[in-house]
From TrEMBL:
One GO MF term: pyruvate dehydrogenase (acetyl-transferring) activity
Protein name: Pyruvate dehydrogenase E1 component alpha subunit
Taxonomy, superkingdom: Bacteria
Pfam families recorded: E1_dh (PF00676)
InterPro entries hit by this protein: Alpha-ketoacid_DH_E1_comp, DH_E1, PdhA/BkdA, THDP-binding
GO BP field: branched-chain amino acid catabolic process
Span of domain Dehydrogenase E1 component: 53-329
Native source species: Kineococcus radiotolerans
UniProt entry keywords in alphabetical sequence: Oxidoreductase, Pyruvate, Thiamine pyrophosphate
């Protein structure tokens, strides 16, 4: 199907007409703006750190796609265009906060200090995530749409009952943030999670990255109103933020997390952004969306926008840009080498973590598999002996 056959999608236009309340601190032209309720005051080194994190996230995305095309990964879900939404929100988190990502939220995971090889190991089929959720306070990727949202609410209710909310102790009070896309809002788990969080005033921030497309379905086929408007019906505040503005995302998420930690309850944040690439490397977006639409959003690129601002403020110079480019190259080289060096898991290891405790059925299936595998190995060895003798 060609662009012409699809016809223009009006999802962005429909929602754009209702975005007068969108929080924006940095326009697409890179010019700083003010907002009466949301502001940030960062030191130059903090601003440069935001740029660095976004640049490295984009490089991770590029390397993930390249490795998949080379056969080193089974699949790759890209995040290009969503760097500001992920880096800004991740920067707002405190050490004790808990992060529940979906499968595209690489920036939120990197923000917790996790080795990027441990992210790509999932898509290489080596493991389900090479980090310790208890230590890193970031939970495993979920490939089932919206499946992370209810566990996030449950965790929020748990820390609430543990007395880690509303104490006034900045090192104890804990918030939970869960990431999901616009497509996830059409799932039943999303409605259930919002309802439970609101009823029990759980300390949860729902960070919806509205990237306009749930695979090939535009947001206009999921909701007739902006997604953050659903929050009112669920019983919580909803905030619309420019998801390509890292400063605005940081300010809005920081306020929502603080509200959650202090006992104010949940908040729904809609980060209005765009998925510049394919849904995954198994997808061809040219079959369902216009190239003109993608080009229009390219003018709102979150990294270019932030660079323009930093240059205008005299914070970013050629020397830092060169150092960052060199760091990104080194980052990519280490990532490629680390992924390719990952050892293949033993086939029997698939049974190891099916349940927390030994389960009779799983143990029986494991024994059956081992017997079949050993028989296979004997047959292969016998064929090799015959081939060598001939």
């Amino acid at each position: 199907m060609t662009d012409a056959a699809v016809g223009p999608d009006r999802a962005g236009e429909r929602q754009g007409a209702q975005q007068g309340d969108m929080v924006q601190l940095l326009g697409p032209d890179g010019v700083r703006r003010t907002h009466p309720e949301h502001e940030v005051d960062l030191e130059p080194e903090e601003l440069l750190a935001l740029l660095r994190d976004m640049v490295l996230l984009r490089r991770l995305d590029a390397e993930g796609e390249a490795l998949q095309r080379q056969g080193q990964l089974g699949l790759w879900p890209g995040s290009r265009g969503q760097e500001a939404a992920q880096v800004g929100s991740a920067t707002a988190c405190r050490r004790q906060d808990q992060v529940f990502p979906s499968y595209r939220d690489h920036g939120a995971v990197l923000g917790r200090g996790i080795d990027p090889v441990d992210i790509l190991s999932i898509f290489r089929g080596v493991d389900h995530g090479g980090w310790d959720p208890a230590e890193q306070r970031v939970h495993p990727y979920t490939l089932v749409i919206a499946a992370q949202m209810l566990p996030a609410v449950g965790y929020g209710m748990a820390v609430q009952r543990d007395g880690a909310v509303g104490t006034g102790d900045p090192e104890r009070d804990t918030a939970v943030i869960t990431y999901f896309g616009d497509g996830a809002t059409s799932q039943g788990e999303a409605a259930e999670a919002l309802n439970w969080a609101a009823v029990f005033q759980a300390p949860v921030v729902f960070l919806c990255q509205n990237n306009q497309w749930a695979i090939s379905e535009p947001v206009s086929r999921q909701s007739p109103v902006p997604l953050h408007k659903r929050a009112e019906g669920a019983g919580m505040p909803g905030v619309l933020v420019d998801g390509n503005d890292v400063l605005a995302v940081l300010a809005v998420t920081r306020a929502a997390l603080e509200r959650a930690r202090s006992g104010g309850g949940p908040t729904f944040v809609e980060a209005f952004t765009y998925r510049m690439g394919a849904h995954t490397t198994a997808d061809d977006p040219t079959r369902y969306r216009l190239s003109a639409e993608t080009e229009a959003w390219r003018e709102k690129d979150p990294i270019d926008r932030f660079r323009t601002y930093l240059r205008a403020e005299g914070i970013l110079d050629d020397e830092y840009e060169a150092a960052l480019a060199a760091e990104a190259d080194e980052f990519a080289a280490r990532l490629r080498a680390g992924v390719i060096a990952l050892p293949d898991p033993q086939p029997v290891s698939m049974f190891d973590h099916a349940y927390a405790e030994p389960h009779p059925q799983v143990l029986a299936e494991r024994d059956e598999f081992l017997a079949a595998w050993e028989q296979h190995e004997r047959e292969v060895h016998a064929e090799e002996l015959v081939g060598g003798a001939s």
